[in-house]
Amino acid sequence: MDEAIAVILVTAPDEPVARALARALVEPGHAACVNLVPGLASIYRWKGAVEEAREVLLVVKTTRARVENCRQAVARVHPYEVWEFVVLDAAQVDPRYAAWIAAETGGAE
């Protein structure tokens, strides 16, 4: 399996938005799976002030070949002015799981 797997982190303001984002990623095949982790407490600096918010973390499983598709889908749906989109390259992935991700996202383009 030589298809590079990527994990993308995205935060959303609430569960309905997180679900809409997840469906925008999985339904067209940009991602094989998106986990929603509710109850995230975020403390961040925004426009000169320290803010605190409850958010939902999306953990997106895809291939490197689909990262840009994921970025565009998030841009279309996300309500934030500036949203989190952090791509992590998976150093070790079970070959069967990696094959499933590649198959569900159409493999390399």
Describe the 3D structure:
With 109 residues, the chain is α+β, with helices and mostly antiparallel strands. The chain contains 3 helices and 4 strands, in the order E-H-E-E-H-E-H. The protein has a 4-stranded antiparallel β-sheet with strand order 2-3-1-4. Helix 1 runs antiparallel to helix 2 (67-77). The two termini are 15 Å apart. 27% of the residues are buried.
What are the main properties of this structure?
30% helix; 3 helices; Alpha-Beta Plaits; four-stranded antiparallel beta sheet; single chain; alpha+beta; 109 residues
Count of individual beta strands = 4
End-to-end Cα distance: 15 Å
What series of H and E elements makes up the topology? EHEEHEH
Identify the overall geometry: elongated
**Text of the CATH class:** Alpha Beta
Largest sheet: 4 strands, antiparallel
Structural class: alpha+beta
Identify low-pLDDT runs: none
Strand arrangement, major sheet? 2-3-1-4
Number of domains: 1
Radius of gyration: 14 Å
Give the DSSP E fraction (strand runs of 2 or more residues): 35-45%
Mean pLDDT metric: 94
CATH topology: Alpha-Beta Plaits
If classified by CATH, what would the architecture be? 2-Layer Sandwich
Helicity, as a percent range: 25-40%
Secondary-structure topology with pairs:
Elements (H helix, E strand, L loop, with lengths): L4 E8 L2 H12 L6 E14 L2 E15 L3 H11 L8 E4 L5 H10 L5
Antiparallel strand pairs: 1-3, 1-4, 2-3
Helix pairs in contact: 1-2
